[in-house]
Automatic annotation (TrEMBL):
This is Phosphoserine aminotransferase. Belongs to the class-V pyridoxal-phosphate-dependent aminotransferase family. SerC subfamily. Residues 4-350 form the Aminotransferase class V domain. It comes from Haemophilus paraphrohaemolyticus. SUPFAM superfamilies: PLP-dependent transferases.
Length: 362
């Protein structure tokens, strides 16, 4: 069988060692003779699991003690609504920084719950190259209860690598597609949230990291499942949680800790991305339309500028075991998502195929 490399933007590939451990334990977890999916989420063993998962995630991501970690459901889209319901206060409005599809979608959802101002922070030059044109909002941020942005736009491959300056205003970040890809200063943020299906684990669970002083301020009509105070007081279990997804996340945390932590993760990711971008930079057959300072380390977009050739590329790549390279329907072209679990061998295989395809179709 051809070696398969999964470049899906999400649900994405997971570490092989994690899947092998889950496979080994599937029918007999903790010598209980049952699967982790079959035990009570309030039982002693599962409570020990979530306690350790919290501890491991804190160590891995360097999360300060004055932050709560919530393991919730509903994906990042659920948080698009939960954020305004929990954070809108006396000022009565929020600022949303639009850098692409998902930040724009978050702003659209927030309008259902509060007044917002939306500010585009990207520009496109005469050659179609996209860049982020502003990251300092300290002169306007104080009029808002919070400022929201998306650190990495999965569809376009735009990454905001400089943390926006919002002064003392609460900064909220959707990190769904680049969480745990590098070290960050958590103390710069009021809330960080992320769907799990890129770097954390499988689809079905969402992590919210929220500073404790922001908990307990939800509007009265906030559904309990979206209320950070209710969830924090219930260990994220006001209803039955996605136990298998939580378990898999716990395995991912341990795996990353035992393979060098985020320092090692970051170096591997930078090496993979640099290798692919170096190839694109020298190519006259493929184009990437993101300014170098904003190129995503996780989602590398490229195109031949010919829809028929793009479709042929995707079909032939799939036949060679390079899966899920078709770009999002919003943008087209191709997209290689090279999250933490993608080995360097996968990137090398992609580059080799790209080079072969270019020579055969030039």
């Amino acid at each position: 069988m051809t070696q398969v490399y999964n470049f899906s933007a999400g649900p994405a590939m997971m570490p092989k060692a994690v899947l092998e451990q889950a496979q080994k334990e599937l029918l007999n977890w903790q010598n209980q003779g049952t699967s982790v999916m079959e035990v009570s989420h309030r039982g002693k063993l599962f409570m020990e699991l979530i306690t350790q998962a919290d501890k491991d995630f804190r160590e891995l991501f360097h999360i300060p003690d004055n932050y709560k970690i919530l393991f919730l459901q509903g994906g990042a889209r659920g948080q698009f609504a939960a954020i305004p319901m929990n954070l809108i206060g006396e000022k009565g409005k929020a600022l949303y920084l639009n850098s692409g599809h998902w930040s724009g979608t978050a702003a659209k959802e927030a309008r259902n719950f509060c007044e917002i101002d939306e500010l585009s922070i990207i520009e496109t030059d005469a050659n179609g190259v996209i860049s982020v044109n502003r990251t300092d909002f300290s002169n306007i941020a104080e009029q808002y209860d919070y400022v929201h942005y998306c650190t990495n736009e999965t569809i376009s491959g735009v990454e905001i690598k400089e943390i926006p300056n919002v002064g003392n205003t609460v900064l909220v970040a959707d990190m769904s597609s680049n969480i745990l890809s590098s070290k960050i200063d958590i103390s710069k943020f009021g809330v960080i949230y992320a769907g799990a299906q890129k770097n954390l684990g499988p689809a079905g669970i969402t992590i919210v990291i929220v500073r404790e002083d922001l908990i307990g301020k939800a509007r009265k009509d906030t559904p309990s499942i979206w209320n950070y105070e209710v969830q924090a007081n219930a260990d994220s279990m006001i209803n039955t949680p996605p136990t298998f997804a939580w378990y898999l996340c716990s395995l991912v945390f341990k795996h990353l800790l035992t393979t060098g932590g985020l320092e090692a993760v970051e170096q591997r990711n930078l090496s993979k991305a640099q290798r692919l971008y170096d190839y694109l930079n020298q190519s006259t057959f493929y184009r990437n339309y993101i300014a170098e300072q904003n190129r995503s380390v996780m989602n590398v977009t490229f195109t031949t500028d010919n829809d028929e050739l793009n479709a042929k590329f995707v079909a032939e790549a799939t036949a060679c075991g390079l899966q899920a390279l078709k770009g999002h329907k919003v943008l087209g072209g191709m997209r290689a998502s090279i999250y933490n679990a993608m080995p360097i061998e996968g990137v090398d295989a992609l580059i080799a195929f790209m080079d072969k395809f270019a020579k055969e179709n030039s």
